[in-house]
Amino acid sequence: MTSHLVRSLFACLVLGSLATGCRRPMGAPLPTRSTCRTRALGLGARDVLSITVFNETNLSGDFRVGEDGAIQFPYLGQVSVLHLQAGEIAEILRHRLGERSSDNPAGQNVLRDPSVRVETREINSRRISVFGQVQHPGVFPHQQCITLTQAISLSGGFTALADKNAVRVTRVDATGTRRTFVLRAEDIAEGRAPDFDLDPDDVVFVPESLT
């Protein structure tokens, strides 16, 4: 092998490494996957609840959470539900609709022994955005423990131009710090890398492949 050929091959390797580095930046260190499973996400503004008070049709129906984090409920007026789970809201309504007593000072004497069920019908307060080289870019509801691969699926999957192993997820934490994670989505889909849990308001961007 001539010295000229050696130098040429070395130059190609260097240029290839630089191009790959530009195309696939390292990004922030990935968080552990336990985050999603150890944090309960409660309700927020614009979410919709389905509330059933058994045998009381006038107290049952769908209720939208206001911008102040409360619903307007018959006989009770404003009931704050911000950051609460459906079961917690059901318990609050049961106590407040029930008979007032020393054990239940918040009771409004509306019903003697109410039975209440609360279900989440719509999640509008927590969203994720998916843009770039996907079939249907847009904003989608954030469900508990939604992952990167699920978000890509919601957006219709990758286009033919997508760089599947340079997907960026941008996140702003509670302190206002912005971090960008670079993920190998194709490796995740093929089982060579763990999936990535998305937080509310995460922005997923799929770049175009340079090759």
Structure description:
By secondary structure, the chain is α+β, with helices and mostly antiparallel strands. It has 2 domains: 48-122, wza like domain (wza like fold, 2-Layer Sandwich); 126-206, Outer membrane lipoprotein wza fold like (Roll). It is built from 5 helices and 10 strands, in the order ααββββαβββαββαβ. The strands form 3 sheets. A 5-stranded mixed sheet has the order 7-6-10-8-9, with helices on one face. A hairpin with a 7-residue loop joins strand 1 (48-53) and strand 2 (61-64). The longest helix has 21 residues, at 3-23. The chain is elongated. It starts with a helix and ends in a 5-residue tail after the last strand.
Output the keywords.
alpha+beta, three-stranded antiparallel beta sheet, wza like fold, 5 helices, 211 residues
**For the record, what CATH class of the largest domain applies?**
Alpha Beta
Spatial separation of the terminal alpha carbons: 29 Å
Give the count of structural domains.
Answer: 2
Rough outline: elongated
CATH topology annotation of the largest domain: Outer membrane lipoprotein wza fold like
Which architecture of the largest domain would the CATH scheme give at its second level? Roll
- The parts where pLDDT drops under 50 for at least 5 residues are 8-24
Query: From the alpha-carbon coordinates, what is the Rg to the nearest angstrom?
Result: 25 Å
Task: Spell out the helices and strands N to C.
Answer: HHEEEEHEEEHEEHE
Largest sheet strand order: 7-6-10-8-9
